[in-house]
Write the structure tokens for this entry.
Amino acid sequence: MARSEWREKTALITGASYGIGEAFAHELAAAGANLILTARSGDRLEVLATVLRKQHSVRVSIIVADLARPSGPETIFRETQKLSIDVDLLINNAGFGLVGDFADADISRQMDMIRVNVDALVGLSHLFLRQMLRRKSGAILNVASTASFQAVPYFATYAATKAFVLIFSEALAAECAPSNVRVLALCPGRTETHFQAVAGTTTRGSTGMQSAVEVVRVGLEALAAGRSHAVSGFSNRVMVQLERLLPRLMVTRAAGRLYQQFSSHAQK
């Protein structure tokens, strides 16, 4: 049911050119879903679209858009209207992180993170949710993070954006329940994608990482079950539950110790 319900439906995936977004594209195409893929990299989207059409005989459209620009969500929405396609599943996957001391980080890059991780997600959700509510069908899957559940020193802005995604998604899930529209926040931990390279955390090693495919399958299964949030990975679920039992200051300090090595003031 997790995959089969999307056969011959249309899913729009942001940040589809890499990582979790690309894995969603492969998983849904294999289930017979038609796709709209969007990202900044048109070349990568074209290659991915060609592969998916050939392997699964599904319709794949691409929209090149930069969600760090305020016009990004509206651009994507207008393009779907030009294609005369109803979006049955919106996957707000696009996002990035930046590790290090907040005070020393490039503020323009921090603001771009907020625009992509929060502003664009809210904008796209608003635009497509209205159509879903009128049809009384559809779903939105927002990619959050295990960082949604606590403050993370040296990863402060990223964790705050993902906390927003979690709370926003849970609220929308409750609002939309009477209309048969589902909303889910998917909360992966460390995943085998290029996220670490962009965020600057590549020195932490790969032990305990999940594959993007594993994360995607958890998300689709949770969405099919009607849940409002899902934490991917047993150890991550245990960690989240433990954090709820401990004092917040203790949890924040523990999270900070994991990332303190990336502080510009850390002793070398």
User: Anything to note?
Assistant: The CA atoms of residues 229 and 248 lie 21 Å apart.
